[in-house]
């Protein structure tokens, strides 16, 4: 269900349910969450790449599981929903770069999965969207990220209509990092992953923490947080080694 491969510090996680368009079942969510936890503790992992097998990245929640949950206790459903939310949190909190490589469709929770990653590379024929409302549903946890990334009006436009975005439109809204031809997606993602694998992990971890932690902070508090992170970065071995090497040039 989740294929894993580690090569040269790059851990590739492949959603491997192509017959279900890589829908997020409870089992797949658990596998992904566990894989990210291991990656965070594994010093040989420097970058995580997330992709889907087959034609699509991820079509969202497993609809059969979703329908079966309709008659369950609300508390039980809230606990189940939170597991997907915790996966989004795990992607944000992982102190290493996470790259989503999107081909085909990234819809609903699958679009949220890509949104939670640090970088999103997409084929130019890929599609993104939050069509939950068309099924009488709400992209509830995704909204926490979407509003932060695109603002309230655009978030309501996307979730209130359920319309699909082209890769170019998603890039214009800030949901996608880069767009390329489908034939170039593999090489572009490999190049980016290799570049990220070469950066200082401590510096990246602090940069990622600062980027996501600033949201909602007053300007002065964000500056103070930046000063604390600045001070922490100066104490790292990577910083000392890099500055010393630069000065010797």
Ordered list of secondary-structure elements with their pairings:
Layout: E1 2-7, E2 10-15, H1 26-41, E3 47-52, H2 63-68, H3 74-93, E4 98-102, E5 105-107, H4 109-115, E6 119-123, E7 127-129, H5 142-150, H6 152-161, E8 164-166, H7 167-172, E9 178-180, H8 185-197, H9 201-213, H10 219-234, H11 237-247
Parallel strand pairs: 2-3, 3-4, 4-6, 5-7, 6-9
Antiparallel strand pairs: 1-2, 7-8
Q: What's the number of extended β-strand segments? A: 9
The share of residues in helices is: 40-55%
| Spatial order of strands in the largest sheet | 1-2-3-4-6-9
Highest-level CATH class of the largest domain = Alpha Beta
Integer tally of domains: 2
Radius of gyration: 19 Å
**Main pleated sheet:** 6 strands, mixed
Q: H/E series, N to C?
A: EEHEHHEEHEEHHEHEHHHH
CATH H level, superfamily name of the largest domain: 2-enoyl-CoA Hydratase, Chain A, domain 1
Shape by Cα distribution: globular
**CATH-derived topology of the largest domain:** 2-enoyl-CoA Hydratase, Chain A, domain 1
Beta-strand fraction estimate: 15-25%
Distance between the termini: 50 Å
Low-pLDDT segments? none
Number of helices: 11
- Derived structural class: alpha/beta
Average pLDDT taken over every residue: 94
